[in-house]
Amino acid sequence: MLIKQVNIKNFRGIEELSFPLDDLCVLIGENNAGKSSILDALRLCLTRSLTRRGNVFEDYDYHMPDASADPARANPIEITLTFEEQNENEWADEISQLLSDAEQVSDAGLRSVILRVTSNFDAETNDYATNYDFLDLSGNPLVRAKNPRLLISLQQLVPTFYLASLRDAAREFRAKSQFWGPSYELLNLMTSRGLKLSKLCLN
């Protein structure tokens, strides 16, 4: 499953950003341009347990106009990820079975899944709250898709591996490396089963 579109609102230094993704994407920019923020937005949506109570975001994750602003009064964080086929019937039947209630089909016959994650301060509980929804093609929440199983299945189908800066990345990615060796084997297993992966690189 490939991520075809990313929309981010009010996350750290990003007030609003939308961009498409391809098979291979590289983020290039100066320090503090927001490259790491984009990767963290993806990581938080695809690796954290969004179905449990509590907030997966920190105070500093909320976009604030200046240093004196209060995160509790910040605009809600909103991160929307769109997964879509590149070609008709590209996804394996397993994907449609696992994500049937969240899956949509465009007029062109391409299947897609749209996940939106939001977070804001809840005055009733006096705490931050994170919510998620699967959306239809018009951006409306799919009530029948409000099932934790769907989110867990999506995260399993789109495994996300986050790398900190490495001096010798080639050495770390060897099949027998202590940390990334098991992940390397998982990637080989998934590709052998016909599941495509999105690749996002940071430079």
Overview features:
203 residues, alpha+beta, six-stranded antiparallel β-sheet, 22% helix, 27% strand
Can you tell me about this structure?
With 203 residues, the protein is α+β, with helices and mostly antiparallel strands. The chain is built from 5 helices and 8 strands. Strands 1, 2, 4, 5, 6 and 7 form a 6-stranded antiparallel sheet that branches. The protein has a two-stranded parallel sheet with strand order 3-8. The model has no long low-confidence stretch (mean pLDDT 85).
Count the beta strands: 8
Rg on CA atoms, Å: 18 Å
Please tally the helical runs, counting DSSP H or I stretches of 4 or more residues.
5
- Ranges where pLDDT stays below 50 over 5 or more residues in a row are none
Largest sheet: 6 strands, antiparallel
Q: Report the end-to-end length measured between terminal Cα atoms.
A: 23 Å
What fraction strand? 25-35%
Structural class: alpha+beta
Q: Summarize the helix and strand pattern as letters.
A: EEEHEHEEEHHHE
- Broad shape: globular
How would you state the average pLDDT, rounded?
85
Helical coverage, percent range: 10-25%
Task: List strands and helices in order, with pairings.
Layout: E1 3-11, E2 14-20, E3 24-27, H1 35-47, E4 77-84, H2 93-98, E5 104-105, E6 111-122, E7 127-135, H3 148-157, H4 169-172, H5 181-192, E8 199-202
Parallel strand pairs: 3-8
Antiparallel strand pairs: 1-2, 1-4, 4-6, 5-6, 6-7
